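On clarity, I found the account of how folds are encoded harder to follow than it need be. What matters is that the chain and its backbone geometry are given together, residue for residue. I therefore recommend that a typical entry be quoted early in the introduction. An entry of this sort, consisting of the sequence and the corresponding backbone structure tokens, reads as follows:
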Amino acid sequence: RALVLRQPHFAPAAMRLQFVLNDQVKTAAVRADRVCMVNPGFLDELNVLECATLIAHEALHPELGAFQRIGDRDPRRWNEAQDYVINAILTRTGLPAIRGWLRDPRFDGWTDVEIYNHL
């Protein structure tokens, strides 16, 4: 609800996710089939607006074509590049940052490919 009220343009993408609690992931992760796995312990540490950020963040990975565009890139580094782009978008929209997430203003305006190559 907080996401719909604060940033409704992310709601359609978020509604396409299927959420599953999974204590095997460190924080959260989304697969190409839009199944989003969230660690319940991590979720317990977030306030309502941070939960909205988490949902929007995970929804943007498939929305931005991360899985279709990975090619032969290293999956971990590609995910990090995606995280920098997504977190910059979310910050600009006014959603709060989540402690420990990748965010670096020097990458603002960079594409995921540019960040990937830089990393």
User: Anything to note?
Assistant: The radius of gyration is 14 Å. The helical segments are 2-6, 11-15, 40-44, 48-63, 75-92, 112-118. The first helix runs from residue 2 to 6. The mean pLDDT is 93.
